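Re: [ENG-882] Designed sequences occasionally contain unexpected residues at chain ends

Forwarding the minimal case from QA. Structure tokens:
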């Protein structure tokens, strides 16, 4: 090694050290000693916490950040097993995922929070709100809870999971083509799934179906904060049934979009979310 090379290494080491420190500052340890990655931008209340769906990551909310940081503190996180967060956990239940969100909230000492959760993120934020009712002003499930009384037998769940167990990537691609409305979004989903663990995918999907079957209605009965869904019009949402368990349940429909509505039409989605936020005091 030359003197010049040694000098260059000495000069760059402080920059590497600072970079590592900054990244460590964006991690918190959740249940099972799993590191959870998050980012924070903006100032203002209420604080918005965005929770992604199954197999995805915090970048699903890229279309919302610049819009909402003008008036709000905005927090995004990667649930365990997703994105940059850790995978060293055996419990992939909705309850465990909610602990990831709670860990971030407690580290940042947040209150006056609105939780926004897409797909699998919807039951996660519902569980989180029930653990922290004094900190949460309201929750916004995104394309979720269409029929809260729908139940799944274990045979039905096994049939749903069978293609994923056989060929995870192929099953995921087939599902993406059915649920997403834009070819570029399908391509993006296919690229992202390459780094997602099939084992975690199957386990977390099964846990989600068990939650919807066994725990959703009790969680709705327990919730103390308003629920305002933003759903696509692909599948009808039974508002009357949901209100039997949570009287504050309401839905705004976003027509002409698929499951990933926040990415398909971020401008429209942001306007609808902003309208909902005005209801939370």
């Amino acid at each position: 090694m030359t003197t010049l090379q040694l000098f260059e290494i000495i000069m760059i080491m402080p920059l590497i050290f600072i970079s590592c420190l900054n990244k460590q500052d964006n991690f918190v340890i959740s249940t099972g000693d799993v590191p959870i990655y998050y980012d924070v931008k903006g100032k203002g209340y209420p604080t918005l916490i965005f929770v992604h769906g199954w197999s995805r990551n915090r970048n699903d909310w890229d279309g919302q950040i610049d819009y909402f940081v003008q008036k709000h503190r905005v927090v995004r996180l990667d649930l365990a097993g997703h994105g940059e967060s850790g995978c060293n956990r055996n419990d992939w239940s909705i309850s465990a995922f909610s602990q990831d969100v709670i860990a971030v909230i407690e580290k940042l000492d947040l209150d006056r929070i609105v939780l926004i959760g897409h797909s699998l993120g919807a039951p996660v934020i519902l569980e989180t709100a029930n653990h922290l009712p004094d900190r949460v002003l309201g929750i916004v499930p995104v394309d979720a809870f269409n029929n809260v009384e729908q139940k799944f037998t274990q045979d039905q769940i096994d049939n749903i999971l069978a293609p994923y167990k056989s060929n995870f990537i192929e099953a995921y691609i087939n599902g993406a083509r059915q649920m997403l409305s834009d070819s570029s979004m399908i391509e993006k989903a296919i690229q992202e799934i390459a780094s997602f663990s099939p084992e975690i995918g199957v386990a977390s999907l099964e846990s989600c179906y068990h939650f919807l079957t066994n725990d959703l209605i009790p969680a709705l009965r327990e919730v103390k904060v308003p629920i305002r869904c933003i759903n696509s019009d692909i599948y009808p949402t039974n508002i009357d049934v949901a209100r039997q368990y949570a009287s504050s349940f309401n839905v705004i429909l976003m027509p002409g979009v698929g499951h990933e509505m926040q990415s398909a039409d971020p401008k429209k989605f942001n306007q609808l979310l902003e309208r909902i936020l005005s209801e939370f005091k």
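QA comment: On inspection the terminal residues look reasonable. The radius of gyration is 20 Å. Proposing we downgrade this to a documentation issue.
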